[in-house]
Amino acid sequence: KPVKTEPKKSDDDICSSKEFDAATTVNEVTYLFRGEYYFTIDSNGIVERKGRKISNDFNGLPNNLNAAVTTREGITYFFKGDQFYQARGRRVESGPRPISSEFKNVPNNLDAAFLYTKDGLIYFIKNNRFIRYDFEGEELSVDDRFSSGFNFQPVGVRAAFNSKSNNFFFFDWYYYRV
Predict the structure, then answer these.
(1) What's the whole-number mean pLDDT along residues 26-45?
(2) Where in the sequence is the domain holding 38, given as residue range(s)?
(3) β-strand partners of 41
(4) How far is Cα of residue 50 from the mean position of the Cα atoms in its chain?
(5) Residue 174: other Cβ atoms inside 10 A
(6) Where are its TM segments located (predicted)?
(7) H or E stretch including 127?
(8) Average pLDDT, the chain
(9) What is the maximum alpha-carbon separation in the chain?
(10) Is the pLDDT of residue 139 over 60?
(11) In a domain, 148, yes or no
(12) Does 172 or 60 have the greater pLDDT score?
């Protein structure tokens, strides 16, 4: 009698899980980070299904990131624990450095970070709070809901990123587009 087996999914397959640690968009390419791998989605929506090792392409960047965000100037900040790294494209330029040294009042172990397409500001998410910053790293507000155009509780956000005209928020089993 034949035995039915499920195909084995590996960690470097984007379809092996719907969960991601961090996400950001750089030069119209979206990077999704999970564990020691990252996956890309190009500007045409083409998904690179097989992941690449973070350590192979982002020299000095740790695995299991908490959050990532890319500014309009093309600077990407990666966050892990109480540290952050700064990069341009895939080139890590500095880090690790304490989050508190650059981002006043931003907590450690972030849930997500993103650039909001409607106001161009950086938002950090931790538990049920949004922390809104301008590009100079100055805190503008801390709130449990967005005051910039939509209203939802950020509890359970695992990663967030922006595209040309939308923001995407990943939760455990679904995503939310704004």
Answers:
(1) 87
(2) 15-177
(3) 30, 47
(4) 19
(5) 9
(6) none
(7) none
(8) 78
(9) 67
(10) no
(11) yes
(12) 60
Q: Within 10 Å of residue 133's Cβ, how many Cβ atoms?
A: 20
Identify the CATH number of the domain in which residue 145 sits.
2.110.10.10
CA distance linking residue 51 with residue 20, whole number of Å: 12
Q: How many residues does the chain have?
A: 178
Residue with tokens 């049920």: 128
Q: Residue 66: inside a domain, yes or no?
A: yes
**What average pLDDT does this structure show over 32-59?**
87
Burial of 8 (0-12, 13-18, 19+ CB in 10 A): exposed
Q: What is the side-by-side strand order in the sheet with 91-98? A: 67-70, 75-80, 83-88, 91-98
CA 127 – CA 82 distance, rounded (Å): 16
User: pLDDT at residue 4 above 70?
Assistant: no
CA-closest candidate to residue 21, choices 3, 39, 11, 35: 35
Task: Scan for tokens 């989050």, then name that residue.
Answer: 99
Domain membership of residue 63 (yes or no) is yes
Q: Which of the two residues, 56 and 11, has the higher pLDDT score?
A: 56
At position 116, the amino acid (one-letter code) is: Y
